[in-house]
Amino acid sequence: MIKKLNLDESWTGFIGATFSLVVIYAASSAPIPLLNTYLQTLHLTSGDLSMTAVAYFIGCVISLLMFARVSDYLGRRPVALATLGLAAISCLIFIYVQSGSMLLAGRFVQGIASGLASSAITAYIADNAPASPKWISAAVISGSPVIGISIGAFGSGIIEEYAFGSLSLIYEIFIILLAFSAVLIAAGPETVKRTRGAITSIVPQISIPGNIHYLLPAAISIFVGTWAIGGFYQAFSSTMAADLLNSDSTVVAAAVLACLLTPQAIGSWMSGRLRSGAAQSLGILAFFLCMVAILYSLKSSLMIPFLIATVLAGLSQGAAFTGSMRSLLDKTTRQDRAGLLSSIYLISYSGAAIPNLIVARLASGFSLLEIAAGYVLLVALVCIIALFALNRNKRHDEKSGVQAGTQSQM
Asked: What residue ranges are annotated as transmembrane (predicted)?
């Protein structure tokens, strides 16, 4: 049962949930620019670096499979507060990290927190989002995580590069921000009436309304292709900066990641000016072309063209991902949002985790450039699938529109 809220309550919940989502993802990205530092100090391998991304994504997938619908029964606020607590625990692990296993444990807990945020907190945002403009909910849900990841990556990179403090300082800052986020969530309204069934909801289940099944092939291919590249950048942004772009700067490593992620928020906003199908098709085609340019720039060690192509890829990814999310959310009822959003992120995180897991097993046999080429081939494949599926979706909608018009005249 959904509670009715007044406008002030809705804005309080919307702002608090959005800020919390940004901070959780910012905390999750703080270790990424430091991975090359951990590589040297903890004596890790490139396969170990890829496993840090795998540990994170496995945590996300487990969380989304088992706990995605818990907030439908316990309420949005309690689950959001638990999510913030888990994010704080992961920061504590990184403050005291002394081995590769602790590094993996910290990333795993961050994955659990991010997965919960992708269901409970994003549903809380959708519950409280203003009715106009209609696209704001999808844009905020899509854009907040990437903004947070960019903030966290730059924050840790700057602290490490300019020796503002120990590596633990960034995690201490995020613990404070997470505590403030908890205060904001506690002040917000509860949008779901607490009911029985939380235990049974833990049984793994993918919840996708039947009326949107025909939209899934295009959306899934876009989710998988774009997030696979995000996983590649999370695992290898610091290594790309060091090995292929000849820079040991953690700020450059953070910039590499941020150039992909931050523009996604702008791309999400831009997609609101297009039909969802147009945003998907234009976005995924442009994303593929950008990946080809990125591969050439890496091969030639051209930093500026590489960063420009990465920014354009981020814009394209934001447009394609948000267009795909809008295509699904527009046909979904409020009661189905938490399950649908968790399914979207489950698919997306799996798309990032599986390629990284394969890379972790094969990394010793291939160079970083060859690994990058493999990812570009993956994007080419999903681009082809998405464009064919989108054309089919268009014909389906046109046929449905004709049938609806015929029935209305009878």
From this structure: 12-29, 49-67, 79-98, 104-126, 138-159, 165-187, 214-236, 251-270, 282-298, 304-326, 338-359, 371-390
Q: Which amino acid is at 218?
A: A
CA distance 354 to 357: 5
CATH (domain of 164): 1.20.1250.20
What residue has token string 């991010």?
Answer: 114
Pair of tokens at residue 273: 């000016």
Q: How many residues does the chain have?
A: 410
What the block records as the tokens of 122 is 């994003």
Among 340, 376, 107, 343, which residue's Cα sits nearest to residue 228? 376
38-75 core/surface letters (b: 16 or more CB in 10 A; e: else): bbeebebebebbbbbbbbbbbbbbbbbbbbbbbbbbbb
User: Are residues 170 and 30 in contact, defined by beta-carbon separation less than 8 angstroms?
Assistant: yes
- Please state, as a whole number, how many other Cβ atoms lie within 10 Å of the Cβ of residue 186: 11
What is the rounded end-to-end Cα distance, in angstroms, of the chain?
Answer: 37
- Give, as one character, the DSSP assignment of residue 98: -
For the segment 295-341, what is each residue's pLDDT rounded down to a tens digit?
A: 999 888 888 899 899 999 999 999 999 899 888 877 777 667 667 77
* DSSP code for 99: S
Cβ(297)–Cβ(349) under 8 Å?
Answer: no
> What pTM was computed for the model?
0.73
d(CA 244, CA 368): 8
Helix/strand/coil for 188: coil
**Residue 354 CB-density burial (10 A; 0-12 exposed, 13-18 middle, 19+ buried):** middle
Write out the residue range of the structural domain in which residue 241 sits: 7-194+207-404
| 44 in a structural domain | yes
CB atoms within 10 A of CB 367: 12
Looking at the 3D structure of the chain, how many domains does it have? 1
SS3 helix, strand, coil % of the chain, rounded to 5?
Answer: 85, 0, 15
Predicted confidence (pLDDT) per residue in 187-213, tens digit: 888 878 888 877 777 776 666 777 788
221 inside domain: yes
